[in-house]
Specification:
By secondary structure, this protein is low in regular secondary structure. It contains no helices and two strands. It has a domain of 38 residues.
Length: 71
């Protein structure tokens, strides 16, 4: 089964599709509503240390190279 996905908005109980969405009358469609009710939200977690007391082991030191440094 070929599918096409459109992002739509619900207004006054009706689904408003984008203007460029051309769907013939009597076409069977499926409406998927995200469980949190907000479409398109992505949450990326940040890595965490298993042992935060070891954070000092990851400290960075910055060393400046002299003007005539070679590769």
């Amino acid at each position: 089964m070929k599918t096409t996905t459109f992002e739509a908005i619900v207004e006054n109980g009706h689904i408003r599709l984008p203007e460029d969405a051309h769907i013939p009358d009597n076409t069977k469609v499926y409406v998927v509503v995200p469980s949190d009710g907000v479409a398109g939200t992505v949450r990326l977690g940040s890595p965490r240390l298993a042992h935060p007391e070891q954070a000092a082991a990851f400290a960075k030191e910055i060393e400046e190279e002299s003007e005539d440094a070679r590769l």
